[in-house]
Amino acid sequence: MTFQRARSEEQREVRRRAILETTSAMLDEMPVAEVSLNELSRRVGLAKTAVLRYFESREAVLLDLLDDRTTTWLADLEQELAHGVSPSGSAMQRAEQTADVLSGSLSTRTVLCDLINAQGGVLEHNVSVEVIRRHKRASLDNLAVMAALARKHLPEITDHAEEFCLNALIMAGALSAYTSPPPSLLAAYEAEPALAVHQIDLRTALRLAIITSLIGMLPRP
User: What does the record give as the DNA-binding region (predicted)?
Assistant: First the structure.
């Protein structure tokens, strides 16, 4: 992919989208930690200095991608919840169904979970105040959408919807870090099977965490 110098806002937006789409493709091949500006610039067909005209740092690119992927996921989640949660069920039944849908949906989106896991400790560093403000505004918008979906299907947690959704995302990110062990750890598990108790299935672990959180937020009968 080769670009001429962008001379209009429309052309600049084309460059930005190309950088984001290339980064997204890279994340289908490698974890967030291995994405570098050098490799990104090579794949997108721009000099590293040119990429930095559109995004001030590697972290800024990944934060924008996190916001985009979260927005896309929430659009899918709306349909998944509509099909997976029965409005006629009891509060406990709907809580279990919500946990099933959320854990299933997030566990199939490993790139999103990896980005969430890196958000606080890595991606929100090495960025300017303006970038972090834009990202946090987008995060709040996405959280509001997710909370509205939670209230729709489980109105019993209305007062805690934002808190629940934020916790669910944080849990998805944190747990995802343990679901792809490095070769040395897999070898240790194979040599000493008792150690494999620490190896988790993301969907199973996330469902347990989500349902536990939801039960704690349901009103007492």
Answer: 36-55
